[in-house]
Design brief:
Length: 434
């Protein structure tokens, strides 16, 4: 039977993993799809010793793939949003189906790409773009399609989780662990995307659209990274029975959707707290199914290739199916998207962990608790470490639930107190109760 002809643009970590998985499991994949998949064309500036591409046509110009009349599917694995966007739109124009692992591309340009694909009657699949090998987009868009989704919360950046785990378990230095994550192929080309939460915000944008049927709205995601987390915070969180995870949270509050990415204290006994290293996990609470948890490798060559190849298989199976009969790009039909507003961070309500350093003088704590109380913020637990005379005193507070705006105003007043030294650390606390 005629093979499904695939072009792979980009032969880096994920590109080479994709070649290896397609070659190693060729027979099994052909049995699943009903015909073989042929890698007919590769777009790469240079070979990658991590895979064997002998006998495959190679072009240094990736646009050769977009125009190749032989290809059914173009797999975009070059990353970035400039050339990648142009490449994908050109390939669509030439009637190719698209598979991509590029969350930045989908989160920032997905609405336009889907419009172009719809007009041309081709599919765009991007399972690898969120939580690497975990089939989370298929779970949301298909497996849980019966549900009204209440919220989604996940550890969706492998590099960040790897750094936090190594800092906590081995006391390692932030910068040193980041270098290791880069060497292992987990980090983005620009690793500030990982440590400042941008990569997780891209992924949350995509998850929320498929969960709630809202357009992709990357610019509305509240985003904080892990670069300010210190060993002191990790220890203090542990003292109170929590661990610090970098979470993406999308919640339907009934008045709008919360879209936020930030470090979060979660109780040590919840399952997400045990997700360590480069592993990712996503919790989804649906009204019919209840809480569900999806776990697996969020980055790395073959885990990501697993999702890329699954998309190639899905598109390969559907090549002859009428476009309108396929699962819509975001799981909801384009003309049935919701206009539910995205809420600002000031409207979010949660508990907080506050850590600050103060001068050892009488009355400082009384001033802090008065400011909190004036804003209606009650303290659930407090910890003040003994230090030598004249040393700054670390103070850590855990509060009850309060609106973000009240906490922000209180912290502005506390920061203005003369006895309060350096920046105040504020981390949100979530119990993840379904
Ligand atoms: N590395 C990972 O664990 C994961 C990566 N992703 C995404 O997959 C995509 C690829 O990531 P990696 O493989 O890690 O990156 P990479 O940097 O290892 O590979 C990208 C490759 O594309 C090549 N390239 C870039 N522009 C090109 C052009 N114009 N023409 C020809 N070749 C070009 C580069 O030389 C490089 O070999 C990115 O969008 C990334 O966000 C998604 C999930 C996990
Ligand atoms: N840099 C990303 C790669 C996968 O999406 C991560 O670390 O999660
Ligand atoms: Na995935």
């Amino acid at each position: 039977m005629k093979p499904v002809k695939v072009g792979i643009a980009g032969l880096g970590t994920v590109g080479s993993g994709t070649v290896n998985v397609l070659q190693r499991n060729a027979q099994e994949i052909a049995r699943r799809i009903g015909r073989p998949i042929e890698i007919a064309h590769i777009g790469a500036r240079r070979p990658n010793p991590a895979c064997n591409i002998d006998g495959i046509r190679v072009s240094a110009d990736v646009f050769e793939l977009a125009r190749d009349p032989e290809l059914d599917i173009l797999v975009e694995l070059i990353g970035g949003t400039t050339t990648a966007r142009e490449l994908v739109l050109t390939a669509i124009e030439h009637g190719k189906h698209i598979v991509t692992a590029n969350k930045a591309l989908i989160a920032e340009h997905g609405n336009a790409i889907f419009r172009a694909a719809h007009e041309r009657g081709v599919d765009v699949a991007f399972e690898a773009s969120v939580a690497g090998g975990i089939p989370i987009l298929k779970a949301l868009g298909e497996g849980l399609a019966a549900n009204h989704i209440k919220w989604v919360a996940g550890i969706i950046n492998g590099t960040g989780n790897f750094i936090l785990t190594e800092m906590r378990d081995k006391g390692r230095d932030f910068a040193e662990v980041l270098k290791e994550a880069q060497a292992l192929g987990y980090a983005e080309a620009d690793p500030t995307f990982d440590v400042e939460g941008i990569d997780a915000a891209h992924k949350l944008t995509i998850l929320a659209s498929i969960a709630f049927g809202i357009p992709l709205q990357f610019s509305k995601v509240y985003t904080e990274g892990i670069s300010r987390i210190t060993a002191e915070d990790i220890k203090a969180a542990d003292y109170f029975g929590y661990c610090i995870k970098h979470l993406g949270i999308a919640k339907d509050t009934g008045n709008g959707v919360e879209l936020r990415v930030h470090p979060t204290l979660i109780p040590k006994e919840v399952l997400l707290a045990s997700v360590n290293g480069v592993m990712n996990a996503v919790m989804i609470d649906g009204d019919a199914v209840g809480p569900t948890l999806f776990y697996g490798a969020g980055a790395g060559a073959e885990p990501t290739a697993s999702a890329v190849v699954a998309d190639v298989i899905e598109l390969g199976r559907a090549l002859t199916v009428d476009h309108d009969e396929r699962v819509p790009y975001l799981g909801f039909h384009a003309d049935a998207m919701s206009e539910m507003p995205v809420l600002g961070i000031d409207e979010v309500e949660c508990s907080f962990y506050i850590r600050l350093h103060v001068q050892d003088r009488t009355g400082v704590l009384a001033d802090i608790t008065r400011i909190l109380s004036d804003k209606g913020i009650s303290i659930e637990a407090m910890y003040q470490k003994d230090v030598d005379d004249n040393e700054p005193v670390p103070v850590v507070l855990m509060t009850h639930r309060i609106r973000e705006s009240a906490m922000r105003e209180a912290l502005e007043q506390i920061a203005a107190l003369e006895a309060v030294l350096d920046d105040i650390m504020r981390i949100r606390v979530e119990t993840l109760d379904a």
